[in-house]
Amino acid sequence: MHNDKFYSTKAKNMESSKIREISKIISKRDIISLAGGMPSPDTFPIKIVSDLSSQLLKEKGSEALQYGTTTGYRELRGKVAEKLNENFDTSVDGENVLITSGAQQALYLIGKVFVERNDEVVVEAPTYASILQILQELEADVKDVKLKEDGFAVEEFEKYLENGGNPKLSYFVPTFQNPSGITTSGKKRRKLVQLADENDFLVVEDDPYHQLRYSGDNIPPIYSIDDQNRTIYVGTLSKLLAPGLRVGWIVARREFIDKLQLAKQPVDLCTNVFSQHLAYRYLKEDIIDRQIEKIKGLYKDKRDHMLDALRKFLPKGVDWTSPEGGMFIWLSLPEVIDTEEMFQEALDDGVAYVPGAVFYGNSPKKNTMRLNFTFVEEEDITEGVRRLGRLIESKVDGS
């Protein structure tokens, strides 16, 4: 039987996420993984989830185990809106919220609703790898705008627009960006809102790390400063509760939410109802506030530990970001080094990272890599960075 004849054109063109492939390789070997974007299991509130689950089953078990609405559990939608209003001085209503199966589903639905073949979509360079996978499937025309220390290169974006650029959508992770850890300044956020209004495009703000700030001053989300309501905001509890529960959300103008929930109906009917009830109780009891402080304390120590290790073990000619929060640090190596080519050698030496090329829609910088500091223990951070430093130094010396 010739299987290819049964696949749709889109299915034939599908490619696996390179980060997922890396995860498969690592799982089969004894590796210090600085690659994954996973939170530390030490942050999972297992006892709290157990108690909330028991309470939930006693009080609303039949409702929590039944099908729910596509838009999501009403009380959770209202509580998400309330928390956004408290944290960011917004005026969100529960009707502006669509609950999704994690932020990843949110991004896929947004792509499905707003992006057609050959539509121009502006992303940061580098950007979140999974958004590139979505845009590839949708056959979008991806346009890059470089990242600087304080966010996207405004002049480059303006030049692209002046030269006939016609984006339908833009995608940004403005706070502790994945993969770079860079935070876009307030000034540039306001500029982006202005450019979107003047050039009539939408802004998708992916904001999974906003509350994981370990130093510096808070910068409001783009959504909170967008008076024209062009921003579609994506959030999640994956980093603040547990990723396995798969609870995320989209916040947008109501007509967008209505259309997005129509796109969601044939995908999953409804997000995991039990998880939604758990998430509501987690937010209702303000457990999240104590949990965030615990997470921040742990991750700040790990971030500082990795930065110290980088200073100690990496040779001259290697630069890295110093994020004020989030989960990632971005490395730029001497241009003679291709981190994709070096990856297997790193595995053989017992350490893994994500080669930077997977985070570019166009013209990848092959001398870059992403490191995660949240998942592994501090002693493994030290040893992993030491091994990387030794390997990089051997490449520089041999060039």
Provide an overview of this structure.
By secondary structure, this protein is of the alpha/beta class. It has 2 domains: 153 residues, Aspartate Aminotransferase, domain 1; 241 residues, 3-Layer(aba) Sandwich (Aspartate Aminotransferase, domain 2), CATH 3.40.640.10. The protein is 46% helix and 15% strand. The strands form 3 sheets. Strands 2-9-8-7-6-3-4-5 form an 8-stranded mixed beta sheet, with helices on both faces. A 4-stranded antiparallel beta sheet has the order 10-11-14-13. Strand 3, helix 6 and strand 4 form a beta-alpha-beta unit. Helix 4 packs across helix 11, helix 5 packs parallel to helix 6 and helix 12 runs parallel beside helix 14. The mean pLDDT is 94.
What's the gist of this structure?
The chain is an alpha/beta fold and 399 residues long.
SSE topology sketch:
Elements lengths: L8 H5 L4 H10 L4 E2 L12 H19 L9 H15 L8 E4 L1 H13 L5 E6 L3 H9 L3 E8 L2 E2 L1 H9 L4 E6 L13 H14 L2 E5 L15 H4 L5 E6 L11 E4 L2 H15 L4 H12 L2 H27 L5 E2 L7 E5 L6 H10 L2 E2 L1 E2 L12 E5 L5 H21 L1
